[in-house]
Design goal:
Elements (H helix, E strand, L loop, with lengths): L18 H10 L10 H7 L16 E8 L5 E8 L6 E7 L13 H11 L2 E5 L11 H20 L2 E11 L1 H15 L6 E5 L18 H5 L8 H13 L7 H9 L16 E9 L3 H13 L4 E10 L10 H18 L2
Parallel strand pairs: 3-4, 3-5, 5-6, 6-7, 7-8
Antiparallel strand pairs: 1-2, 2-4
């Protein structure tokens, strides 16, 4: 299977893309030779995959690494970004993207820095464990445990105000943040806001091809650059390969899945925090993200939803060149600042 992220832009998508992105992609990516997808190699390169478009980020007052309790109490890494102001600070908890099997504390470091400085909040980035070494939904389980730890102990350990918490993330990290909002509500943890970009929502293992998916964006953007149908299925297979094939372990792991494979199947969409969902016009995941926003609205929640036209799934990493990425970062920081400092 080829490394789909390194192909020239498909003619079906080209008319929909911002010419600035097309030029950026063609200069840095389109002529890179394709090769087999190697998970270990991709992990070493993932956090710099879009660095050709990433702009400089502001300096935080302090950045350091720590640990919090993950699922079943096992310690997982976090990175803490402190603003240049006296604490206790509001806190924004970030969950990085990477399709459940990629990503680390460097993946969204530039976004974390921008939010820390522009929103004047402490940002804690969570390095949840990955599939396939650990069974899905380990990313959700670790991340919610991290939220519980920060809520209960963060005032002492991180000098944060546990009554002013927001969550965020991109792609799989956006999915985690949205699902954690349901879990936090059920655990009586007050969240002020969730702000996500291009989240994964649906369970695409149900579809053998893009044509079978109920989302027009899956067909329209089947061959989109940076994330297409083939890459989505590769990530999805990685996720399901993490589940044991033998009983009784398989039964235990499948039971832990609950409704998490498809966030639209959450049992209760009421009394959730203010939610900001940003989608990308040239992303196969566009329509399912917007369908999730509609479910939140139907549940009576405050929702801000915006589609950034002309850009693909990971556009927010390209803030050096794309106005859409700059606006994504600035709007996200503005919403966090206005909500957590209100």
């Amino acid at each position: 299977m080829s490394h789909e992220a390194l192909n020239p832009i498909h003619p079906s998508v080209l008319p929909h893309l911002d010419p600035v992105f097309v030029k950026l992609y063609n200069e840095h990516v389109a002529n890179t030779p394709s090769g087999p997808i190697d998970l270990a190699l991709l992990r070493t390169k993932y956090s710099v995959l879009y660095s050709y478009g990433t702009g400089p980020a502001p300096d935080c007052a302090r950045i350091y690494d720590a640990q919090v309790a993950g699922h079943n109490g096992e310690l997982i890494p976090v990175r803490v970004y402190e603003p240049d102001s006296p604490g206790p600070w509001p806190v924004h908890i970030d969950f990085h993207g990477g399709g459940w099997g990629l990503g680390d504390l460097d993946t969204e470091s530039h976004i974390c820095k921008h939010i820390c400085v522009k929103a004047n909040v402490c940002v804690i980035d969570v390095a949840y464990r990955l599939v396939p070494e650990h069974a899905f939904p380990i990313g959700i389980q670790d991340s919610f445990a991290a939220l519980q730890h920060i809520h209960a102990k963060g005032a002492v350990e991180f000098k944060i105000d546990p009554t002013r918490i927001s969550l965020g993330g991109v792609s799989a990290g956006g999915n985690i943040a949205l699902i954690c909002a349901h879990l936090a509500r059920d655990a009586s943890i007050l969240l002020r806001m969730v702000a996500v970009g291009t989240p994964t929502i649906d369970d695409i293992s149900k579809y053998a091809s893009a044509a079978e998916a109920p989302w027009p964006s899956m067909q329209e953007m089947e061959h989109a650059p940076t994330l297409n149908w083939g890459r989505l299925k590769w990530f999805d297979n990685l996720k399901w390969q993490s589940i044991a094939s033998e009983e009784p372990e398989r039964e235990v792991q499948m039971k832990a899945l609950k409704w998490y494979a498809n966030a639209l199947q959450a049992p209760d969409f009421t009394q959730l925090p203010k939610t900001v969902i940003y989608t990308a016009g040239c992303d196969p995941l566009r329509d399912e993200g917007e369908a999730y926003a509609k479910k939140l609205i139907e549940g009576g929640n405050e929702v801000i939803q915006k589609r950034f036209a002309g850009v693909p799934h990971p556009f927010m990493h390209m803030d050096d060149c794309l106005w859409q990425a700059k606006e994504f970062i600035d709007l996200t920081a503005d919403h966090i600042r206005d909500t957590l400092h209100r």
